[in-house]
Amino acid sequence: MIRLQSAIRLAERATLPFESLLLLATRVYVSWQFLKSGWLKIGDWETTRFLFEEEYHTPLLPPLVAAIAGTAGELVFPVLLIVGLLSRYAAAGLFAVNVLAVVSYSHVLLTEGFEAALGQHYLWGFMLLVVIVMGPGRWALDAMLAGSGRPRR
C-alpha cells in the first residue's frame, strides 16, 4: 500500500508543473475557435443577420438580438478567457454560447453526416467545463489579482 501511495504522489509531483500550461493551452485553443466565429460574423454582418433570421432557430430571443448577443459573446468572452480575467465567468459564458449554438442549429447538427461538427461542440463544452471547475491556472490575471504567493488553479 505504501508503494502505491508513493507512486501516486510521484505522478502528482511529475505532472504538477504542466497543470498551468495545460490550462493555458485549453483556454487559448477554445477561445480561438469562438473568436474566429465572432470575427466571421462581424466581418459580414448582412450574412450573419440572414443566418439568424432564416437558418438558426434561436429560442426565446428575436433573431437580431440573438445575432448581436451571440457575436458579442464570441468576441468578448474569449478575450477574457485568453488573458485569464474573470476566467470562470468567461468560460461559463462561452459554454452558454456553445449550448445555444447547438440548440439553434440542432436541426442540422443532429442529422446524419454532421457527427464531427457536433463532436467539436462537445469538445469545446468539455474544455470550458474543465476551466470552470479547475480554474485558469497560474498563468492568468485571475491568479495575479488573487495576490497570494501560492499557485492557483
Question: How would you characterize this protein structure?
Answer:
- There is one protein chain.
- The protein is mainly α and 153 residues long.
- It is built from 7 helices and no strands.
- The chain has helices at residues 2-43, 45-55, 63-83, 87-104, 106-109, 115-134, 141-146.
- The protein has one domain (20-146).
Q: Report the principal-axis shape.
A: elongated
Low-confidence region ranges? 149-153
Question: Given the structure, what is the number of helices?
Answer: 7
Approximately how much helix is present in the residues? Answer: over 70%
On the 0-100 scale, what is the average pLDDT? 94
* Helix/sheet category: mainly alpha
Per DSSP E runs of 2 or more residues, the count of β-strands stands at 0
Proportion of residues in β-strands: under 5%
| Radius of gyration based on Cα positions | 19 Å
Distance from N terminus to C terminus (CA atoms, Å) equals 29 Å
Order of helices and strands: HHHHHHH
Tags for this model:
about 150 residues; 7 helices; disordered C terminus
In short:
The chain is built from seven helices and no strands. The protein is mainly α.
Topology diagram in text:
Blueprint: H1 2-43, H2 45-55, H3 63-83, H4 87-104, H5 106-109, H6 115-134, H7 141-146
